[in-house]
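Practice problem 4.
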């Protein structure tokens, strides 16, 4: 049985390793530091991990956003910042269980909307979001220039 629990300091190494699977452009040390920072703000962040024994096999990170969130009508909004399941355990319902846990937390925080985002060309993530109950609201391409 795989248990889903709030992340704690004892999960940092496994959690950081999976963060690196999802966001491989940052070193593991940066992922661990960011995870530690999130644990220090439980009123703003929810961090769930899925455990098989003592091993972290999945995680979901969420935050409460008070600023405008694309596609949403109100505030605050619970926002799925990241979710990752170990490749060997995908397509077994773990991500849906994690999303359900985030939704429950968001409701308890007074949120009426649950949002997320992904890259415009990440078809696998698009399919996951739709299967998890999200509806696409808009597509945006951001631009910038240095001054």
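Answer key:
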């Amino acid at each position: 049985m795989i248990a889903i629990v709030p992340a704690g300091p004892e999960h940092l190494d496994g959690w950081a390793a999976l963060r690196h699977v999802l966001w491989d452009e940052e070193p593991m040390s940066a992922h661990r530091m960011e995870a530690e920072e999130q644990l220090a703000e439980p009123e703003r962040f929810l961090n769930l991990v899925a455990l098989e024994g003592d091993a972290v096999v999945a995680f979901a990170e969420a935050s409460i956003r008070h600023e405008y969130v694309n596609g949403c009508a109100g505030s605050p909004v619970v926002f799925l910042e990241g979710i990752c399941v170990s490749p060997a355990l995908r397509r077994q319902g773990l991500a849906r269980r994690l999303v359900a846990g985030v939704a429950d937390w968001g409701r308890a925080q007074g949120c009426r909307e649950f949002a997320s985002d992904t890259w415009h060309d990440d078809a696998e993530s698009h399919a996951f979001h739709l299967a998890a109950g999200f509806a696409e609201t808009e597509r945006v391409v951001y631009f910038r220039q240095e001054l």
